[in-house]
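To the wet lab folks,

You asked to see what we're planning to order before we commit. Fair enough. Below is the target structure as C-alpha cells, and below that is the sequence we designed to fit it. If anything looks off to you, flag it before the synthesis order goes out.
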C-alpha cells in the first residue's frame, strides 16, 4: 500500500469555515478579515484589547542540524499543538509563511506533513494572502525612489558605488544576483551595479516581523539604510521620504493570518525571514496574539538550534520581551545516522555505530539550549517506519545522560494522537524552573559578540574577521550601531561555516567576511562562508512536478 502524499491528505480534509476556527481561538468577528472561506487576517487591534489578559506558555520548536534526510520541524510543531488539544489544553500554533523560492526549488511545500499539516496547504504555499507580494512591493518602491532621487539631481549626495539596498523578488533566480541597470541613455536612469535578494531576505521582511504596530513599522522602515553619501554618511528611507508609502503597502501585511490544522486547531501563519540569512522567526505580532489566545503557544524557529533558536532567543525574545517556557528539539534517527557518515541511500538500514557517531550533533544543540540559554528542553524523535527499537533506545539513553527526556513523535502518521506523549512532556517542562538568559550582552563590542556566538553556540575556537569586516565593524560602531544584536548569516548544514563539516565539529574558526547593519530591523548581519541572499534553482526544480488540472486542483506540492 503506497503512502498518500501530503497534498492528497490535505485535499481530503474537511475544513471548517474560518469563522468557526476564530470562535475556537476566541477571536471575535470584529477582528476578523476573511479571505474566502478558510483564511482570514486578524486585526492587530486585538492585541491592544487583550492587553490585560494573561499570556500563555511559549513553547519553541527547533531542530538538529538539517540534512537531506529531513527533520520535520513544522510537522512536529503542528502535531504537538494538536496533541496538546487532545490532552485537553487550549493550544495555538504560530508558524512562518513559506517562500515561493523553496516551494518551486528544492524544498517543496512548507505547511507540515502527513497528518500534521496546516490547511489550505496549496494557498499557504503559494500566494496565501499576498503578504510577501506586499513586502516585495515595499522593498522595490524604496529602490525606485532611491534611484529616482539620484536621477533627479541627487540632492543628498548619494554615492552610487555605496548603495546597499537591493531589489527583491520571491523566487530563486540566480540570474538576478548581480546585474547592471540604468542603461539606455540619460533618461533611462543612472547606470550602476545592482542585484536582487529573495523577498524573505529583504530587511522589509525582518522589519514587518519585528514591528509591534503601524507607528513602530513606520519608524523602523524610516531607519532602513539604503546606502552612503560621498562623505560616508548613511542615507535612510526617511531621508528619501519613503516610509509612509512603504507602510501604506504593508498595512494589511502587518496583520497575522488565521488558518487551521487538519484537526481544526487554530494556526497563525505570518512572516518568514530566512533563518540562515535573516532571523528566521514568524512575526512578533502573531506570537503575541497566540500567547493571548492560547494557554500554550507553540512556535518554530528556522533550521537548526544554532541558527533559528539562537536568533529567536537572542534577537526576537530580547526585542519583544518574550520568555519561552520550554524548548522542543526535533531529530530523526535517519538524520543522526547521516551526521554519523551514512550516505542518504543507506539510511533505512539499522546502524548503531553511525547513529552513535552522529548523536553528538543533537547533544550539542541540547547542551546549548540547557546550559547557554538556561531553558528546559525535550528531544522529539520524529518517527520513521524504518527506525528500530535499538536505535531509539540508544538516542534516549544518550539524552538521559544530559538529563533530557526523549519523546517519540508519531504526528506524521497519526496527527495529534501521535503527539500526546510529546505534549505531556512539554506541559511538564513548562512548570519547571526557568533560568532564561541571552547568550551575550548587547553592550559588548561587535567583534566580541561575534566571538561569543562562535565559541558558545558553534563551539568554534573563535571568530576571524577579514580586513574588510574589521573596517566595517569599526565604521558601524562609530555610527552608533555597536549596541545591536548580531544576526549570523551562516550555512544551515553545519555548526561551522563549512557545510561539509557534519556532526559536532571541533578545531575550526568562523570567518566573517562582511558586516552590514539592518538599522530598521535593529540588528547587524554578519555574513560567513558562501551564504547568498538570492538562492538558485536546482537541476531538477520542484516546479517541474507542480501542476493544476481543469478543475483548479493543484498537484505536486509535496
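Sequence we intend to order:
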Amino acid at each position: 500500500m503506497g503512502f498518500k502524499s501530503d497534498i492528497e491528505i490535505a485535499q481530503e480534509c474537511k475544513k471548517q469555515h474560518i469563522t468557526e476556527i476564530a470562535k475556537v481561538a476566541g477571536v471575535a468577528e470584529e477582528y476578523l478579515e476573511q479571505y474566502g472561506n478558510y483564511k482570514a487576517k486578524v486585526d492587530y487591534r486585538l492585541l491592544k484589547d487583550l492587553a490585560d489578559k494573561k499570556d500563555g506558555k511559549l513553547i519553541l520548536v527547533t531542530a538538529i542540524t538539517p540534512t537531506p534526510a529531513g527533520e520535520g520541524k513544522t510537522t512536529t510543531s503542528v502535531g504537538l499543538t494538536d496533541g496538546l488539544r487532545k490532552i485537553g489544553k487550549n493550544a495555538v500554533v504560530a508558524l512562518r509563511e513559506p517562500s515561493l523560492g523553496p516551494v518551486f526549488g528544492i524544498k517543496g511545500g512548507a505547511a507540515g506533513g502527513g497528518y500534521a499539516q496546516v490547511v489550505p496547504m496549496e494557498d499557504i504555499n503559494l500566494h496565501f494572502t499576498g503578504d510577501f507580494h506586499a513586502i516585495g512591493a515595499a522593498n522595490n518602491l524604496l529602490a525606485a525612489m532611491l534611484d529616482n532621487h539620484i536621477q533627479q539631481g541627487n540632492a543628498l549626495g548619494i554615492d552610487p558605488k555605496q548603495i546597499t539596498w537591493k531589489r527583491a523578488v520571491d523566487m530563486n533566480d540566480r540570474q538576478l544576483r548581480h546585474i547592471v541597470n540604468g542603461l539606455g541613455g540619460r533618461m533611462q536612469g543612472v547606470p550602476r551595479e545592482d542585484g536582487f535578494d529573495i523577498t524573505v531576505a529583504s530587511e522589509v521582511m525582518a522589519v514587518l516581523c519585528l514591528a509591534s504596530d503601524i507607528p513602530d513599522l513606520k519608524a523602523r522602515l524610516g531607519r532602513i539604510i539604503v546606502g552612503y553619501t560621498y562623505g560616508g554618511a548613511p542615507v535612510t528611507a526617511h531621508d528619501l521620504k519613503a516610509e509612509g508609502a512603504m507602510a501604506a503597502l504593508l498595512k494589511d501585511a502587518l496583520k497575522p493570518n488565521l488558518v487551521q490544522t487538519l484537526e481544526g486547531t487554530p494556526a497563525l501563519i505570518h512572516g518568514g525571514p530566512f533563518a540562515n540569512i535573516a532571523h528566521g522567526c514568524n512575526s512578533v505580532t502573531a506570537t503575541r496574539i497566540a500567547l493571548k489566545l492560547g494557554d500554550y503557544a507553540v512556535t518554530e524557529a528556522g533550521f537548526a538550534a544554532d541558527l533559528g533558536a539562537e536568533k529567536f532567543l537572542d534577537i526576537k525574545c530580547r526585542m519583544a520581551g518574550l520568555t519561552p517556557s520550554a524548548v522542543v528539539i526535533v531529530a530523526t534517527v535517519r538524520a543522526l545516522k547521516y551526521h554519523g557518515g551514512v550516505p542518504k541511500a543507506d539510511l533505512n538500514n539499522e546502524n548503531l555505530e553511525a547513529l552513535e557517531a552522529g548523536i553528538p550533533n543533537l547533544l550539542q544543540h541540547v547542551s546549548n539550549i540547557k546550559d547557554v540559554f538556561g531553558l528546559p528542553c525535550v528531544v522529539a524523535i520524529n518517527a520513521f517506519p524504518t527506525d528500530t527499537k535499538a536505535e531509539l533506545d540508544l538516542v534516549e539513553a544518550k539524552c538521559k545522560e544530559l538529563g533530557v527526556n526523549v519523546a517519540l513523535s508519531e504526528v506524521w502518521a497519526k496527527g495529534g494522537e501521535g503527539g500526546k506523549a510529546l505534549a505531556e512532556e512539554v506541559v511538564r517542562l513548562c512548570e519547571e524552573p526557568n533560568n532564561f538568559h541571552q547568550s551575550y550582552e548587547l553592550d559588548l563590542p561587535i567583534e566580541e559578540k561575534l566571538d561569543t556566538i562562535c565559541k558558545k553556540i558553534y563551539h568554534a575556537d573563535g571568530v576571524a574577521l577579514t580586513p574588510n569586516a574589521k573596517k566595517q565593524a569599526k565604521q558601524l560602531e562609530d555610527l552608533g550601531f555597536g549596541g545591536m544584536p548580531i544576526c549570523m548569516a551562516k550555512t544551515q548544514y553545519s555548526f561551522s561555516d563549512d557545510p561539509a563539516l557534519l556532526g559536532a565539529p571541533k578545531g575550526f574558526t568562523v570567518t566573517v567576511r562582511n558586516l552590514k547593519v539592518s538599522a530598521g530591523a535593529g540588528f547587524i548581519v554578519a555574513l560567513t562562508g558562501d551564504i547568498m541572499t538570492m538562492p538558485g534553482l536546482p537541476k531538477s526544480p520542484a516546479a517541474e512536478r507542480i501542476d493544476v488540472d481543469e478543475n483548479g486542483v493543484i498537484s505536486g506540492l509535496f
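Structural context that might help your review: The first strand starts at residue 32 and ends at 34. Residues 50 and 292 are 7 Å apart (CA to CA).

Thanks,
Computational group
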